[in-house]
Specification:
Blueprint (H helix, E strand, L loop, with lengths): L1 H45 L2 H4 L11 H19 L6 H18 L3 H4 L2 H24 L5 H23 L6 H29 L7 H29 L4
Helix pairs in contact: 1-4, 1-8, 1-9, 3-4, 4-9, 6-8, 6-9, 7-8, 8-9
């Protein structure tokens, strides 16, 4: 009788843990898919002079197509958030795939600025950092909510600083490295926070339901943003032309 009571007490926790694992498995599957799409698009465009010329004019400025690839992903992120409850799973996944494709094309120029070896090194370092923080966020019993709120406010400040750097500062110099350093710290922390938040979502939602699938795609978008931004900021430090 006593054992039965303990088994009944453990059952809800076991079910939540299983639901969270299934949900997170879906999240990382969608994220991996997006990373493969972005990586392939970036490599194909970045290593082809003909395709890269579609993104830039002769004076080095971005072409109309290049501007679309640069700013459209931001619009798609906003669209997924605003229309989350209206879109079905297939539409959400389709928008996410389009987003990852355009993002890959928009960063294709990294193959023109940095050596392949330094890009691969940065990717490995990013993957290791992301993996450690994701595991930390998934396994820790510490509530990261307050930590995440601080990081989000810091992210807003970072975006403002980046816009000021892009539009008003001609020779950023050290300021550019300061922004990159802050970006690394912010997105490293957000990786742990977002992973914990997604684990909590996964413990209360059916991963195989329409809602669960949509949440998994949106969660994959969050972690994808953490990874790609962490990668790009680290590339400022680890990237080289040699």
């Amino acid at each position: 009788m006593r054992n039965e009571i303990f088994e009944n007490q453990d059952q809800p926790q076991f079910t939540q843990a299983t639901m969270a694992k299934t949900f997170m498995s879906n999240v990382f599957s969608y994220m991996t898919m997006a990373m493969l799409i972005s990586g392939s698009a970036a490599f194909i465009f970045g290593t082809s002079e003909d395709l890269l010329s579609l993104l830039y004019n002769f004076d080095g400025s971005r072409s109309i197509f290049g501007m679309i690839c640069m700013w459209a992903p931001l619009g798609l992120v906003l669209l997924m958030g605003i229309r989350f409850h209206k879109f079905n799973f297939v539409t959400m996944l389709g928008v996410f795939i389009l987003y990852s494709l355009l993002t890959g094309i928009s960063i294709a120029a990294i193959f023109n600025f940095y050596s392949m070896a330094s890009i691969l090194l940065t990717f490995v370092v990013t993957g290791g950092t992301f993996g450690v923080m994701a595991v930390l966020g998934y396994t820790t019993n510490t509530d990261l909510t307050k930590f995440g709120s601080i990081l989000k406010m810091a992210l807003i400040g970072l975006i403002i600083a980046m816009l000021a750097n892009y539009f008003f500062i001609e020779d950023a110099g050290m300021f550019d490295y300061v922004i990159s350093g802050l970006g690394v710290l912010i997105f490293t922390g957000l990786t742990a926070y977002d992973t914990q938040k997604l684990k909590q979502i996964g413990s209360v939602v059916d991963a195989n339901s329409e809602e669960g699938k949509k949440q998994a795609v949106y969660g994959a978008l969050s972690l994808y943003l953490d990874f790609i931004n962490l990668f790009l900021f680290l590339l400022r430090f680890l990237g080289s032309r040699d």
